[in-house]
Amino acid sequence: MDIIQVITRELKVEKWQVEAAVKLIDEGCTIPFISRYRKEATGSLNDEQLRTLHERLTYLRNLEDKKTQVLGSIEEQGKLTPELKKQILDAQTLVVVEDLYRPYRPKRRTRAIIAKEKGLELIILSSYESNVHLPKEGDYKVIYNVGPDEWLGYIEQAEYIFTNSFHACAFSILFEKQFYVGARHGDKVDTILKTFDLEDRRFTKTYDSTKSAKPIDYSKVGQLLEEKRKASGDFILNAIHSVEKKYNLADTHFKKEPFNLIYASSAKNKNLVCRLFTFGLNKSIREKSIEFRPNEKYDGNAVVKLAKNPFRYKGFTFLGWYCRTTFHGIYKWYCMDGQFHTAAEILYHDDIELCRFQDQEQTDAFTRNRFLTGNSFFLQAVWQNNENGHIIPNIERSLRASFKEYMVQARKK
Predict the structure, then answer these.
(1) % of the chain surpassing 70 pLDDT
(2) DSSP category for residue 335
(3) Residue of 144, 146, 171 lying closest to 158 (CA atoms)
């Protein structure tokens, strides 16, 4: 369609006048501006003529765009005949184009249709029974008002997830699920999709991401997730340490009360022997696990000299001591940066390394950083097997067990 020629005929003006007006409009000039200040360019087209021209220009351009879209869609289906193509190209209105396109318009793929295609059951979790957004057709089950555990169970067991919930997106990523997100923009859903480069997971009335989006590469997503976890942990640690430093919390008087040390060791058999001569007792104990608590209490400002190792473990070499304390029921280990850290901090931060004290070492580790520690410090003996070089205890296993126990307690609370 020659749009300029159509408008020229409809307005009954010269073609050059229409061409000049269209050029000015495309350059961003407004109708009042053209009418008042560009009369010589348009041959004195008045305000009414210019507004009609502008309206018809917009409509006809939209008409041509619609024709192109319809032709492309029908051709993609392999159903475009020469006769149909001519009818569409000759159409003078959007209504005619829509009527011609209606028999060929692809049926919108709903969640129920996708589930049926993949041979899956569709389960919809809804928070209220008056939900008006349920599918109009298809086989599906609706479950209302599920609790947190049940909700997580459905997420974990699902093959595919369709949602507009931020939390469902987050747990889909944690459980490494293929998921798609409905039309919800301008909030934290956009943020999480952008953060993990998953913006192609959108599922709207006009865009079907289930056809175009590739399966999520969770090796890449996992790397990004670990980076974000580390950054979050660093932020929290820096915030805590900056508060401690700002208010000098490490040296506050109410954390200078006396403390005690507990020496302990464990073994897989009764080859572990504790000679308590170190502590002035003429006694020897042979057990799999031994813990000794000296009666001595240390002053809150004391620099402590660790006792000589009282343990002997046949076939193993003593390497030193790991130090642990308990703060409000949470285990914390002394690390090379001079701070006590939780299991989660150590496991998820490569730059945090456990400190191993040497036998009879002098240290002020127990008198510093008292704001976030307990009043008892547990010194765990570290051994190396002389045959295979294995080190006990397996500290990573201990840290993971501690972290798991903490999460169980947190869920109970």
Answers:
(1) 78
(2) B
(3) 171
